[in-house]
Specification:
Chain lengths: ~300, ~300
């Protein structure tokens, strides 16, 4: 936001003492709200550096008496973070590749090539938006256990996530809306010049779509990084589990780790999504605005 | 230069070629949807009428899965919990994001800071959030009872009592979710034309009148969408009670998805689990339909 627009309270209002007071009150409320949202997150870090004795003190100390950063070394040595980081990254990368490929091609076809029947197909995609997410877990589980026509058992494998990644009606809708905004003339001109549809798509349309692709990439990253339930159900081999599932199974549920260790593990797991959020904030805000109103 | 219906090397006219390529581009997506959306929907319906034994053999059992479900008092409780959760979530959390968004929008300095601060909980993984709040809720060691103590409020049992467990989860969900909603309202607020405020000011409307007659009506379509979206969200709560309470105490935090999970993976009864999924589908589909109707109006 470069230039602040006119809002509810105008300049003239602010000249009045009562409004000035109200404005100060607003700031105070917002600071309290910010404290309430941020402090629990800070509390994880505070708890993680307390000694095992201090963390069980009643009432809890608000500030640690001494900072035991050694907890982090302890957790890092006992829990194989690099392996689970790698698992999550591999999982995300595969989902990203499949989803980008499948949904951009489909959205391009629906937006620019429009073969006969494309409206019906679009309707079929959009109907999927009506039954969101985990409500599908039972039939999806059964299908992944023995993929129809092939008989492959994809459970406990990353293919259980990679293969269905393209069935994302929401991304297709978002991309189609974006492609609709690219002038048809641009596409037609390239075709007339003899470029194939694939080349037009890859060399003209995709480069123009960088902003939306970036936004989708971030959402894939955050979504998969934070996902718990479905990977928990599907990936049963401990060594293959993504980070959040492994933290639940092997840190939180095991008896090996003390409370401060658990808090340290959570802190480490929260850092990547928060880092991505800070680095790419602009894309995310735009994404929320896009996605929030569309599903 | 190929123009019009010139025959291309493949022996197709450009028109035919474009059509063929159009289908080819759609093919992977259509296959994905057949396998992982459309067929699962049909399968849910079929499986809800079947008994699946451990060997994987199936037999048709009519409506007996539904009968089992309706005879299970926990199923009724899960729906009542969903209703209670929704009402509480709306009560605690429906207006909070609107108010916070309006306040942030009015702030002259530090707007970016407040935006980030309220949104940050939404970035944290739900596993981390659940474990963190389990720690905050701990009746003796937790921070929440300590804070209550500062104001001489008696401690709560939070998740450990069947009376307070669900409201506690709603409190946590509100913390985790309101920032994301506030950002959406913020976008809506920034879309309100400045002239409206200026004109109202010239007409002598005070701040409250402006808020009531301009801000709220302009936000109303988004608010309607968010209302449905929030209900849709609470119908699908799963991870938090799964990690924090396991649906207890006394099924006070049992959700529909948690029950479906239990039927499928604890009782190994895919038939009853599918029957419950089918009923959930129907409710979600109706809500989603309302949502899309409202959404297309919100955008118009």
């Amino acid at each position: 936001m470069a230039e602040r627009g006119r809002t509810l309270i105008g300049k003239q209002d602010l000249a009045r003492p009562i409004v000035k007071f109200g404005y100060a009150l607003m700031i105070a409320i917002l600071l309290l709200v910010a404290l309430a949202t941020l402090f629990p997150l800070v509390w994880v870090v505070i708890s993680s550096v307390k000694s095992s004795a201090e963390i069980f003190r009643v009432p809890p100390t608000i500030w640690p008496e001494n900072f035991q950063w050694g907890t982090y070394l302890n957790v890092w040595s006992k829990f194989n973070f690099p392996r689970y980081f790698k698992n999550t990254v591999v999982l995300i990368f595969g989902i990203w590749v499949v989803q980008m490929l499948v949904t951009t091609l489909a959205a391009y076809s629906l937006s620019k090539l429009k073969p006969p029947g494309h409206k019906l197909i679009l309707f079929g995609f959009l109907a999927a938006l009506m039954v969101p997410g985990l409500a599908m877990m039972i039939p999806k589980y059964v299908i992944l256990k023995s993929l129809p026509l092939f008989g492959w058992n994809l459970l406990d494998s990353y293919w259980a996530f990679w293969l269905p990644a393209g069935a994302n009606a929401f991304n297709i809708l978002l991309l189609k809306t974006f492609f609709d905004g690219i002038p048809d003339d641009l596409v037609d001109a390239a075709t007339i010049d003899g470029a194939s549809e694939l080349r037009t798509f890859a060399q003209i349309v995709l480069p123009l779509s960088k902003p939306i692709l970036a936004t989708l990439t971030i959402f894939i990253f955050l979504g998969v990084w934070n996902n718990f339930m479905w990977p928990y159900i599907v990936i049963t081999t401990t060594e293959k589990q993504p980070l959040m599932v492994a933290i639940y199974n092997s840190v939180f549920k095991s008896n090996v780790f003390a409370q401060n260790d658990i808090m340290a593990a959570i802190t480490i797991a929260i850092i990547p999504p928060i880092a991505v959020f800070f680095a790419l904030q602009k894309h995310i805000t735009r994404g929320i605005t896009l996605t929030g109103l569309k599903g | 230069m190929a123009q019009g219906n010139v025959i291309s090397p493949g022996g197709f006219s450009t028109h035919q070629r474009k059509r063929l390529i159009g289908y080819l581009f759609l093919l992977p997506a259509v296959l994905s949807f057949i396998y992982f959306v459309w067929y699962p929907l049909v399968l849910t319906f079929i499986m809800s009428l079947q008994k699946v034994n451990l060997a994987g053999a199936t037999s048709f059992v009519g409506l007996s899965n539904f009968k089992t479900l309706f005879a299970d008092p926990v199923f009724g409780q899960a729906w009542r919990n969903a209703g209670y959760f929704t009402i509480l979530a709306l009560l605690f959390g429906y207006l909070v994001p609107v108010i916070v968004a309006v306040l942030i929008n009015e702030v002259r300095h530090g707007q970016a800071f407040f935006r980030i601060a309220v949104y940050l909980p939404k970035v944290a993984p739900s596993v981390a959030v659940s474990i963190l709040w389990l720690w905050l809720f701990d009746p003796s060691l937790g921070l929440l009872n300590t804070i209550l103590g500062w104001f001489n409020i008696p401690p709560s049992q939070w998740l450990l009592s069947s009376r307070t467990a669900l409201p506690s989860l709603v409190l946590m969900a509100t913390w985790a979710g309101f920032g994301g909603t506030a950002i959406i309202y913020l976008a809506g607020l920034q879309g309100i034309p400045e002239e409206l405020y200026e004109a109202a000011e010239i007409d002598g409307a005070n701040i409250w009148q402006r808020a009531w007659n301009i801000t709220i009506p302009q936000l109303r379509p988004v608010m309607a969408v968010m209302f449905i979206l929030q209900i849709l969200g609470t119908m699908q709560v799963f991870t938090e009670p799964f990690i924090m309470t396991g649906g207890g105490p006394n099924n006070a935090t049992m959700t529909i998805l948690l029950l479906i999970y239990r039927y499928a993976f604890t009782y190994m009864d895919m038939g009853v689990a599918s029957a419950a999924s089918l009923l959930l589908f129907i409710v979600l589909a109706i809500l989603s339909y309302i949502y899309f109707r409202l959404d297309s109006r919100a955008e118009a």
